[in-house]
Specification:
Distance between the termini: 79 Å
Largest sheet: none
CATH topology of the largest domain: Rna Polymerase Sigma Factor, Chain: A
CATH superfamily of the largest domain: RNA polymerase sigma factor, region 2, helix turn helix motif
Order of helices and strands: HHHHHHHH
Radius of gyration: 39 Å
Number of domains: 2
Structural class: mainly alpha
Number of strands: 0
Shape: rod-shaped
Helix content: over 70%
Number of helices: 8
Length: about 200
Amino acid sequence: MVNQRIEFSDIQQREPVLLERVRRGDEEAFGQLFDRYYAAVASYTYKLVKDEQASEDIAQDVFVRLWKTRANLDPGMPPQGLLITMAKRLALNELRKVACDRKARLHFWQEIQLARNIVDDQLQFTETMQLAQRAIAALPKRQQEVFQLSRYEGLSHEEIADTLNISKHTVNNLMVQALKTLRVALKGAWFLVFLLSIFER
């Protein structure tokens, strides 16, 4: 276990030909290499990844890869140097993977939040427009006609007066009354209040 850490410096090199035996496919020699160095490899990788389970997984992977590539081993290379090189490479790969996963998770949650904000904005806009429609529908008939001709048809006050066969002054008064009522009904819906202020000009 990594909890009882063993450093590479604690291991005595009693068998310089150990890697040569492993290279030839000697399972007993590989078992000796594993027993002798596994804890040290796990301890070394823990210093890099700072994670107990990850360090043990990397240490196991080191020996799995060592056995699979045993035919390419350099028997003159000290086991310690070889294992440190392999462990460091795998640990750095793990750190990069963790960093990428963390970045991906962060991006995922940012996208989720953005989607939620869009949905919230759409819902809020829909609710506000429904509120506006109800407020307009509640206006007295003549005020409603004047407002709708101005808002939906884009007619000027003079054109509205001609359409409804009333004076321009009457149109102005009806529009002022309609806007005053709508401001009260739409209090808090600042965007619609802003639009109303434009129509008033």
